[in-house]
């Protein structure tokens, strides 16, 4: 199947939709609560972290010369490590996609309809990434069925918390895992690419 590359403009729109949403309305209160009246200065730290993440992704693309992430992992790691890694990352991305659904973010379509596309788009992107990961473990399962099972699994897991404290615990831990993944995964790929280059030089 032929694959087309995304234009830079489309990538920019994807990043904009990912980074913006209903959180813009609560961001001033959150920053003031955790960092004080000058909480807006913390956004600079977040900006630097996001810029670091973007630079790491760009470094992976340049070092790998456009090679697929799955090819890099498949050429470097055994299946015993690879499959659990795929399932771990895929399940986390699926849960993050579920959290981005408008019903979870409590978006009122009449008042905040301008953000509806952004939230649905981001949720769909997370689910697509999760499906791509899990597809590496179960390649024979039809994509639509795999996506439906993934969404059903996230809904089933979301029924586990019984109180708001449990929900906050889940949200906090999923967010921490996502932050660690955003930096750790590109660093892992860069390390694997350097190891592959070294092996080719000594071959």
Automatic annotation (TrEMBL):
Single Gene Ontology BP annotation: spore germination
Segments passing through the bilayer: 9-27, 39-61, 81-101, 107-129, 141-161, 173-195
GO cellular component: membrane
Subcellular location: Membrane
Principal subcellular localisation of the protein: membrane
Domain of life: Bacteria
One Pfam match: Spore_permease
Sorted UniProt keywords: Germination, Membrane, Transmembrane, Transmembrane helix, Transport
InterPro entries: Spore_GerAB (IPR004761)
Membrane topology: Multi-pass membrane protein
Family that this chain belongs to: Belongs to the amino acid-polyamine-organocation (APC) superfamily. Spore germination protein (SGP) (TC 2.A.3.9) family.
Protein name: Uncharacterized protein
Species whose genome carries this gene: Paenibacillus oralis
Taxon lineage: Bacteria, Bacillati, Bacillota, Bacilli, Bacillales
């Amino acid at each position: 199947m032929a694959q087309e590359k995304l234009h830079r403009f489309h990538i920019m729109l994807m990043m904009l939709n990912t980074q913006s949403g209903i959180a813009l309305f609560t961001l001033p209160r959150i920053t003031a609560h955790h960092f004080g009246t000058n909480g807006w200065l913390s956004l600079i730290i977040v900006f630097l972290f996001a810029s670091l993440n973007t630079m790491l992704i760009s470094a992976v693309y340049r070092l790998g010369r456009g090679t697929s992430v799955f090819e890099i992992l498949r050429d470097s790691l055994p299946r015993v490590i690879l499959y659990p890694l795929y399932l771990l990352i895929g399940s986390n991305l699926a849960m993050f996609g579920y959290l981005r659904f408008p019903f979870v973010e409590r978006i009122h379509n009449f008042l905040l309809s301008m953000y509806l596309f952004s939230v649905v788009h981001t949720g769909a992107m997370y689910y697509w990434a999760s499906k791509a990961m899990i597809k590496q473990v179960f390649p024979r399962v039809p994509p639509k069925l795999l996506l439906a099972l993934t969404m059903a699994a996230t809904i089933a897991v979301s029924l586990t918390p019984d109180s708001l404290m449990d929900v906050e615990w889940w949200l906090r831990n999923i967010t921490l895992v996502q932050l660690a993944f955003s930096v750790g995964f590109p660093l892992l790929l860069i390390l694997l690419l350097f190891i592959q280059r070294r092996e080719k030089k000594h071959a």
